[in-house]
């Protein structure tokens, strides 16, 4: 897959020009085979090769720079040299080369290639439909957590893919563990209110599409928009109150009475938001 620097340059182009058949290096718009592996086999792409103007921040990283300079040596040593040494140790050089070298590499490559191909055609779009990226929990098991690709494309700066504790995302867990050990820092995560708002907008959009087929759609449209506006306002007030409460708790300078008052306000807004989401779900179920 080439060096981390080269891969990152291609990946950032993919995010900037996603689904653009001319500018996206592995556009899903050109079909499954092309986005999976064909983009690596069909053409040299010499106009982009060696253009690292969009990864200058990574060029300053000594580890990334070292791996880029010595990529061929490292790749051969890891994929041929190490399996051959293990084979020599176990007395089966060919078997170890085929299993620990070739088979491992082929399987790892194709599972990661699923992120470019299957994750753009199979799954749901809970956060955005402005691109082909999909969320798929099954794919997450084969792509180290990147099966939650719809989220990744809308909130690309988030170090997570699976945002819930129960979603399989070993990459997220590894990064978090590295941060606890002091090996990673400045982990970025998207604000919960933005995630909730994106999900809510997609639910509204899909519900409006269903209503176009109904005779009494104008009445339903008005009711749907009214509930959406109400829930959006509750969402904003709830998260603003929670943020304010967390900030004041850190300062520890608030009088007991004022702290209690703020907590009661927060709980009322939280309960109202939960009730609003429940009503919204019932309304969507009625439309379906």
Briefly say what this structure is:
It is built from twelve helices and no strands.
Oligomer category: single chain
Largest sheet: none
Terminal CA distance = 44 Å
Helix content: 55-70%
Name the structural class.
mainly alpha
What radius of gyration results from the CA coordinates? Answer: 24 Å
Order of helices and strands: HHHHHHHHHHHH
Q: Unreliable runs, pLDDT <50, ≥5 residues? A: none
Average per-residue pLDDT, rounded, comes to 90
Count of β-strands: 0
Shape: globular
DSSP helical segment count: 12
**Strand residue percentage:** under 5%
Keywords:
mainly alpha, 288 residues, single chain
Topology overview:
Layout: H1 4-16, H2 32-41, H3 56-59, H4 62-69, H5 71-90, H6 93-113, H7 137-142, H8 149-154, H9 170-180, H10 192-211, H11 217-251, H12 256-287
Overview of the structural elements:
- The chain is mainly alpha-helical and 288 residues long.
- 65% of the residues lie in helices and 0% in strands.
- The chain is built from twelve helices and no strands.
- Helix 5 crosses helix 6 (93-113) and helix 11 packs antiparallel against helix 12.
- The longest helix is centred in the C-terminal third of the chain and has 35 residues, at 217-251.
- The radius of gyration is 24 Å and the shape is globular.
- The two termini are 44 Å apart.
- The mean pLDDT is 90.
């Amino acid at each position: 897959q080439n060096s981390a620097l080269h891969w990152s340059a291609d990946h950032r182009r993919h995010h900037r020009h996603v689904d653009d058949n001319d500018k996206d290096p592995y556009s899903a718009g050109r079909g499954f085979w092309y986005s999976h592996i064909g983009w690596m086999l069909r053409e040299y792409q010499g106009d982009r090769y060696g253009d690292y103007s969009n990864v200058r921040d990574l060029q300053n990283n000594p580890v990334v720079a070292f791996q880029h300079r010595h990529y061929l040596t490292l790749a051969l040593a890891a994929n041929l040299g190490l399996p051959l040494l293990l084979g020599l140790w176990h007395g089966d050089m060919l078997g170890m080369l085929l299993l620990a070298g070739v088979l491992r590499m082929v399987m790892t490559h194709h599972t990661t290639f699923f992120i470019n191909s299957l994750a753009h055609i199979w799954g749901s779009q809970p956060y955005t439909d402005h691109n082909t990226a999909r969320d798929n929990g099954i794919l997450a098991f084969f792509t180290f957590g990147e099966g939650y690709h719809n989220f990744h494309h809308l909130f690309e700066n988030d170090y997570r893919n699976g945002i819930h504790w129960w979603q399989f995302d070993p990459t997220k867990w590894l990064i978090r563990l590295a941060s606890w050990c002091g090996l990673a820092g400045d982990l970025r995560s998207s604000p919960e209110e933005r995630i909730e708002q994106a999900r809510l907008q997609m639910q509204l959009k899909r519900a409006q599409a269903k209503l176009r087929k109904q005779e009494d759609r104008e009445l339903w449209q008005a009711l749907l928009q009214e509930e959406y506006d109400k829930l959006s306002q509750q969402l904003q007030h709830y998260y603003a109150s929670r943020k304010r409460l967390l900030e004041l708790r850190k300062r520890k300078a608030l009088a007991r009475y004022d702290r209690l008052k703020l907590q009661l306000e927060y709980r009322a807004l939280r309960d109202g938001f939960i009730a609003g989401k429940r009503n919204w779900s019932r309304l969507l179920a009625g439309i379906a």
